[in-house]
Amino acid sequence: MSSNTDIKIFCPATVANVNCGFDALGFALEGIGDEMVFRKTKTLGVTITKITGDTLPMEAHNNVAGVAGNALLEAVGADFGVEMEIHKKIRSGSGIGSSSASAAGAVFGINQLLDTPVSNLELTRLSMKGEALASGNEHADNVAPCIYGGTTLVTGYDPFKVIALPPMDTVYVGILHPHIQIKTKEAREILPEKVPMKDAIAHSQHLASFVASLYEWDKALFADSLKDVLVTPYRKQLIPHFDTIETISKKNGCIAFGISGSGPSMFCLAFSKDNIDSYLSESIDLYKDNGLEVDGYSSKISSEGCRVIE
Ligand code: HSE
């Protein structure tokens, strides 16, 4: 039997890695995200009652939202279950945190139904269980900003810790999504087990510079820090015209460009929306001229993560 206490939430799309923070950095996007509905039931566990916008498994144990939701219900020893509707707006395999939005949304929504809600850190830790079903690995760089909003840094997995970084209020984001699918699992498998010491040093310099630039809001250091020597060199072959799009981003005055999560979406950052708009327009034309479907949109970084909307 269902209670009549429906809760509807919005869970934002996110950009993970942000070039200099593989499996560590991420930020939430404005205006694009999924919706989910939750209601208490007497039947224990998660029951998925409806999915729109995508073809995904209805069985909870095969669905990232179901797995994450059950992890929370079990962790708190809930004496009730939850019916869940998932309304996907973020395309699967697009690289802007589709599975993470489902996993983070599931725990966030169920948390609203608990008498004693758990912390954002615990929600993030539990939502990684759902993320692992999709990607084969527990990482929190998408789920953390989806829960916390803004820009987050996962400082460690054991013990697990997340820091909310200072806002990047004056930064505009462009997302370009060529319509090919890249599976995160496969994009992780092509990465090398070991990296050269010089790359490890450069990587730690970039991430440290990024964090320092946010606390001091040093725009030059910020722009200089957003580089990736660890992952992009191996993954960019998966994305058609990647190098040309990077050149277009520079030509249009963008300060950073890279793969969003495991791709195929690419993110770019600029201090002016005009730069983002002209970059997107030129890049979309390039893909269309080459017979590839693509979409693009501009956003700011959302200070809010998952939220109740009804
Ligand atoms: N850090 C992850 C990766 C994000 O790039 O593989 C995608 O889940």
Topology:
Layout: E1 7-16, E2 25-41, E3 45-52, H1 64-75, E4 81-87, H2 98-111, H3 120-135, H4 143-148, E5 151-157, E6 160-164, E7 172-178, H5 184-189, H6 197-216, H7 219-225, H8 232-235, H9 242-251, E8 256-259, E9 266-270, H10 273-289, E10 294-300, E11 307-308
Parallel strand pairs: 3-4
Antiparallel strand pairs: 1-2, 1-11, 2-4, 2-5, 5-6, 7-9, 7-10, 8-9
The structure holds L-homoserine.
The site of L-homoserine has 13 residues, from helix 5.
Quickly describe the structure:
With 310 residues, the protein is α+β, with helices and mostly antiparallel strands. The protein has 10 helices and 11 strands.
What descriptive keywords fit this protein?
alpha+beta; 310 residues; 11 strands; Ribosomal Protein S5, domain 2; binds L-homoserine; 2 domains; 7-stranded mixed beta sheet; single chain; Alpha-Beta Plaits; 4-stranded antiparallel beta sheet
Number of helices: 10
Shape annotation: globular
Helicity, as a percent range: 25-40%
**What ligand species are in this complex?**
L-homoserine
The whole-angstrom Rg is 19 Å
Q: What structural category characterises the helix and strand content?
A: alpha+beta
Largest sheet: 7 strands, mixed
CATH fold field value of the largest domain: Ribosomal Protein S5, domain 2
Low-confidence stretches: none
